[in-house]
Amino acid sequence: MSTAPLWTLSAIVEAMRAGPRGPVPATIPGLSIDSRTITAGEAYFAIKGDVHDGHAFVEAAVKNGAGVAVVERAQADKFAGDLPLLIVPDVLDGLRELARASRARLKGRVIAVTGSVGKTSTKEGLRRVLAAQGATHASVASFNNHWGVPLSLARCPAEVRYAIFEIGMNHAGEIEPLVKMVRPHVAVITTIEPVHLEFFGSLEAIADAKAEIFSGVERGGAAVLNLDSSQFARLRDAARKAGINRIVTFGEDAAADARLIDVSLHADCSAVHASVLGHDITYKVGVPGRHMAINSLPVLAAASLAGADLAQSALALSQMQAPAGRGVRIRLGVSGGEALLIDESYNANPASMRAAISVLGSAPVGARGRRIVVLGDMLELGPTGPELHAALAESLKANAIDRVFCCGPLMRSLWEALPSNLRGGYADSSAALEQDVVSAIRAGDALMVKGSLGMKMKPIVEALRRRFPAPGAIDDVAV
Fold it and tell me: What is the mean pLDDT of residues 228-237?
């Protein structure tokens, strides 16, 4: 990749129709919306969030090294004249315009990923396999919303060979404007599951909202769809209606274009035998779990559609690591030995919860070790919430889980469905449950922590790491 700056001042001014003021730099190496982590020379976008208005941190951003701050015209006069500013009518709209300009100059192949579960893992898998074959850009973390997608697109260097963007939603109508910015050559929908049911009411409505991704696919582009999904036919029909003729399927169904033939599950990886676009291949996925083996199929299919070499892509999957909060494995130093902590604290829904429980079920334990889960509420499930929580009892039993800790009002339904020998502890909140969990751990245990982001399960993980420090960690860095 060249060392050219991300943006020149003239290009960014033209794209956003911005008015420069003060000592603005001639080139801009990067973009940020966080004054705390901004690096030297970057442009700081003062976006108004749900809690904070970024304009309150403009001076801090410049003090921390920002080359210029992008601010709205209505607030520009409150800043000193010697601050380097780009003045626009609306900062978020300006970022969107810059994202469109970024896409217009991009010559590489673009992939967009959405779905109820597995978006980030699929995006990170694509990042891993494509980066081994050419300059690759991908959205960081889960930057998949109304500001995350344009920020990720505006950050994309013009000369990359591949670009991957994750696109999420909570409500109908959110994906379409984002995908029309991204304009992918390949659109992936991982699967449709009962996530955000509170806002949709049915799987069909969720499928229709996810199908908005087809509205932005470039002419001659392709869709990659899960043939095992109950909503496959609905998604296929929507893709065809949008003018997409190349539809590639994946799954365990014998008719899938990318088909899982066999998988051997291990504690720290999965060995996969698959048929992908007519090629019989065997490869290793560096993250354990059957769901991760299935996630590898759309990765390989989409990478191939984008022009990457299939054999090299499959080889690169052995280096795949768990993104932060989505299966990171951490050793805990406890009295008499070690315990294993699986950090799944980032988010939760019924499908991802079952998958994580299955991974714990195959995790190794010591001679006196137990498999322990710490579960927080799965949010946004609507009226079916209590029933979906109680249903997790079967997964816990099937995977030989020995002890269950629960927190949150919805998890009360699971707690009441559990036999007494599985009950470890219940509390209304994660904070109230924390000490019970810390006190329960002993040598040989394997422990998994998971819940919706709003349940704040991460502090339990942090408390365990503080109480039981160990040198190093397993898969402790997100890709």
Answer: 97
